[in-house]
Amino acid sequence: MTAHEGATVLVVEDEPSIADVLTIALRYHRFEVMAAGCVRDALALAERTRPDAALLDVMLPDGDGRALGRELRLRQPDLAVVFLTARDAPAEIVGALGFGDDYITKPFNIDEVVARITAVLRRTRPDDVLPQRPPLRYGDLELDETTYQVHRAGTTVELTPTEYALLRFLVRNGGRIVPKEQLLRHVWQYEHPAESTVVETYISYLRRKLEPLGPPVIHTRRGVGYGLA
């Protein structure tokens, strides 16, 4: 069985036609799917079934999808959270999605949605229990490969699964500059990397969490990619 097979996805989308398309496609790919059109119904469903992932529209008729995501994550810390947002959403909305594991802009390709949820679940719902492994270290960074905890200069840094996967890939590549396309393939599992700002967005999230604890650690090579300083 793969990491996602049999996983339950909570789809929260108030537009029935979009919810139907997402539900049909995800079930075709062997996900269990629950659908809700509002915050109230989503919270009730999540309480009863404890989904593995939540696909949340940001704009809902009775509340904010971001607030819903925070509440779901508080109730279930291991829940994978993916947001749906309009392509022309203001920057402050996209920036506020930093506690989630990924976001997808509308209009979207349904195959991309399935691929992104599958990729997030690979990171948050591994196939087997991992054996004890030595931590990864780079400078004052330490990544525990068994518990997925991160420390900088001895201080714990709370990262989402996607942030952890991105930092781990940079640590594994040491001081080498990793091209953006390679990050999209290895961290987000994009088979055909296209123009996307998701890498820049998550690099900014990492910097926001790591830099208060020490000097800048992530280096940008404009037009090429990212590496550790």
From TrEMBL:
Q: Which InterPro entries match?
A: CheY-like_superfamily, OmpR/PhoB-type_DNA-bd, Sig_transdc_resp-reg_receiver, WalR-like, WH-like_DNA-bd_sf
List GO terms (cellular component aspect): cytosol; protein-DNA complex
Which parts of the sequence belong to the OmpR/PhoB-type domain? 133-229
* Leader peptide range in chain numbering: none
- Tell me which Gene Ontology terms the entry assigns under biological process: regulation of DNA-templated transcription
Q: Can the keyword Cell inner membrane be found in this entry's annotation?
A: no
Give residue ranges for domain Response regulatory: 8-121
Does the keyword section mention Flavoprotein? no
Q: Which SUPFAM superfamilies match?
A: CheY-like
**Gene Ontology molecular function terms on file:** phosphorelay response regulator activity; transcription cis-regulatory region binding
What are the 4-aspartylphosphate sites (modified residues) in this protein? 57
Q: Which residues bind DNA?
A: 133-229
Q: Which UniProt keywords apply?
A: DNA-binding, Phosphoprotein, Transcription, Transcription regulation, Two-component regulatory system
Matching PANTHER family = REGULATOR OF RPOS (PTHR48111), TRANSCRIPTIONAL REGULATORY PROTEIN TCRX-RELATED (PTHR48111:SF28)
What this protein is called in its record is DNA-binding response regulator
Source species, please?
Streptomyces populi
